[in-house]
Amino acid sequence: MKKLSLLLIFVIGFSVANAQQPFPFWNDIQKFKSQDSIAFPASNQILFVGSSSFTMWRDVNDYFPGYKILNRAFGGSQLVDLIRYRYDVIYPYQPKQIVMYCGENDIAASDTVTADIVAERFKTLFHLVREKYPATPFAYVSMKPSPSRKHLMDKFDAGNKQIAAFLKNQKNAVFIDVYSKMLKPDGSPMDDIFLKDNLHMTAKGYKIWQKILKPYLKK
Question: N or C: which end of the chain has fewer CB within 10 A?
Fold first, then answer.
């Protein structure tokens, strides 16, 4: 009987935990919604969305004084997650500009995810964004060459090229290349701009991004 009771408690606890987070990153999204319910962000800001390279840029406003940036990135996310949560992290905010960093995690998540798949996921998301914001300036920041994912660099590069080619034919949309600016002369990733995990960047890495992104941001 005691074993049965413990098993029942475990099953109930597991069910409750899954009920609280029915989809990946559910809790992250609820935190954003809670923040918005307390003080909804002003419109006409630059909206940063995507994965952890943006999430961890917590002091992004310090890098771009004079620009108003709303960061709604959530770490570990893939393009499919942005598609799922577009009503929560993109649609509500009436942004002046949308800047996106995402795609790297899609490729890292599975060997079956190719550059073609990432490009198609991005196109799907882009068209959904355009349905809501047909004329809002849009910028895609290229997938970066993370040292811990060096074995995936060919996929990142190929995906970047496909997305760049697609955006070249879209109105009010730009592709921002950070990939090539984060490589050493021998073509390998810089190793002094990343944290110990060799995935996320230090302030030195974000300084590189600051210089590259600033000409594209809308005041």
Answer: N
